[in-house]
Amino acid sequence: xxxxxxxxxxxxxxxxxxxxxxxxxxxxxxxxxxxxxxxxxxxxxxxxxxxxxxxxxxxxxxxxxxxxxxxxxxxxxx
Length: 78
Fold this sequence. Notes:
Structural class: mainly alpha
Region (Disordered): 48-78
Order of helices and strands: HH
Number of domains: 1
Protein name: Putative small lipoprotein YifL
Largest sheet: none
Keywords: Lipoprotein, Signal
Helix content: 10-25%
Distance between the termini: 69 Å
Shape: flat
Number of helices: 2
Signal peptide: 1-19
Radius of gyration: 28 Å
């Protein structure tokens, strides 16, 4: 009985709304930002800003290079 219940709950959890997002009838869509020309669409609202997913930064060194001597790189005092 329990495995069947678990499978039913997992199947129910996997179901989701497939389609366009619209506000529920008594609710109104979000207000447009003050500096925007027009109100944003639901797809535009769901798009993550570039800061949320930064682009990959490659290492600027293509080959290993020896470091020059640093006169300030001293061992810790005893």
